[in-house]
Amino acid sequence: QVQLVESGGGSVQAGGSLRLSCVASALGAGSCMGWFRQATGKKREGVASIDFSGISVVADSVKGRFTISTNSANNTLYLQMNSLKLEDTAIYYCAAQSLAYCNGPLVEYAYSYWGQGTQVTVSS
């Protein structure tokens, strides 16, 4: 069965950086993968996605600050987060589709597989 395991979350001061990782197992080669986040009291929102060809989609709220990438050699998805803001505080989830091209890249219900989440806390 597909498993997604996130790591790399933590606490950081505003303006700082973190890199999240997500190791995927039993996922078909070249799947669409994405990062979502959910802040306390808010709905889960799409942050970034990347398809098998490397085409990425990034939410406007993080554009220019966050970068999504993959390493197929070790089945790992990354989210490099720079210039972090207080409003980036949330639980971050890794997700995957069964498709190679992203169908609804930042749409929660388009994703079939989810990790358990990792907490990111940005403080002033």
Brief synopsis:
The chain has 124 residues and is mainly β. Helices cover 0% and strands 48% of the residues.
Describe the structure.
The N and C termini lie far apart (41 Å). The strands form 2 sheets. Strands 2, 4, 5, 6, 9, 10 and 11 form a 7-stranded mixed sheet that branches. The radius of gyration is 13 Å and the shape is globular. With 124 residues, it is mainly β. It has no helices and 11 strands.
Keywords:
single chain; 124 residues; mainly beta; 7-stranded mixed β-sheet; 4-stranded antiparallel β-sheet; 11 strands; 48% strand; globular
* Overall number of strands: 11
Structural shape:
globular
Q: Which range best describes the helical content: under 10%, 10-25%, 25-40%, 40-55%, 55-70% or over 70%?
A: under 10%
Radius of gyration: 13 Å
Largest sheet: 7 strands, mixed
State the helix count: 0
Give the N-terminus to C-terminus distance in angstroms: 41 Å
Could you say which structural class the secondary elements and strand pairing correspond to? mainly beta
The residue ranges in which pLDDT falls below 50 over 5 or more consecutive positions are none
Mean pLDDT: 95
What fraction of the residues are assigned to beta strands by DSSP?
Answer: over 45%
Q: Helices and strands, in N-to-C order?
A: EEEEEEEEEEE
